[in-house]
Amino acid sequence: MIQLNHIKLSFFFKNVIYFLFFYLMSIVVFGDPLELNLEEFSKEPHGQVLFLRHTLAPGFDANGVPEKFNIHDCSTQRNLNITGRKHAKEIGKIFVKNGIKFKKIYTSQWCRCIETAKLLNLGQVILEPSLNSGFRGIFNKEISLLSLRKILNRINYKDDPILMVTHYGTILATTGIFVNSGEGVVYNAKTKKSKKILLK
Length: 200
Hints:
7-stranded mixed beta sheet; globular
């Protein structure tokens, strides 16, 4: 009995190893199916919403003291540094270079998102509260995400894509994909599927 269980266990691990091997090989040969480059996006968008996390903004909002945070006072927030501002400008130029235009550009009301959206230099920036961060409960995350889903469900998928500049928490909650500063995710509200977009 013990020997039989050992054989079954060995067979199981061999199958796992074979699966991982062929999975990794498929990524090497065919590319990561969860990623999309800008050329692919410009020709055939995976979805009509591109979520972009604000570029680099080191530090802590209100120095970690929520009651001192003021959505209308950038001095109480962590803001883009020189690297973050440069990166935002570069991303905007990359979109233009690839012929990507956005019908609308929405942004969180937080200063680092507004500045990122404006530095992209791609058009008028519209403030959208549903894209705000849920930092320390200042904004109700559940209510914001519900409002965002309503907006996503109203999108006309025959139009040019929409850009939404927001925070990692909002992107993660909506798409299931974690992004670093200045990274993006393409989201299809109909299929609920997402792909990380390579902004290079």
